[in-house]
Amino acid sequence: MDMYVVKYKELLENYECGPLTETVFNNEVRPVPPHDQIRATGFAYLEKVDALDNDGWWMGKITRKEGSNYKVDFETTGDDEIACPLSCLRFHLDWRHGNTRTLKSDPSLFHTSKLSLSLIYSTYVANGL
């Protein structure tokens, strides 16, 4: 399987000594999300979302709403749960056959048992190895 070196524009190495660089499989690389994405006005219980946290977009599920924040559970990081304002949430983006899709635009994704990636890179520069 092909691999790429990804150099992030916004994520930093430990101790902030420069941009984070890591090697990833080709199926983990995603383009920058479309700017014309549907703006969410709210989310339902257990709806899949992408949450902006620690300078990256992470896939999670809505567990409840507390005031103006939504609690998001991240199964892939050991069941971490954080409170996110609506401005830091978007419909989950899935990369299929060269296209970005959301559950709202393609409900058939709801029945997909395996998602291709839990971390959606927000910004990157990819170079082939």
Automatic annotation (TrEMBL):
Classification via CDD domains: Tudor_Agenet_AtDUF_rpt2_4
Sequence intervals crossing the membrane: none
Domain named Agenet: residues: 41-97
Name of one Pfam family that matches: Agenet
Domain of life: Eukaryota
SMART domains, sorted: Agenet (SM00743)
Protein name: Agenet domain-containing protein
Organism in which the protein naturally occurs: Rhamnella rubrinervis
Organism ancestry: Eukaryota, Viridiplantae, Streptophyta, Embryophyta, Tracheophyta
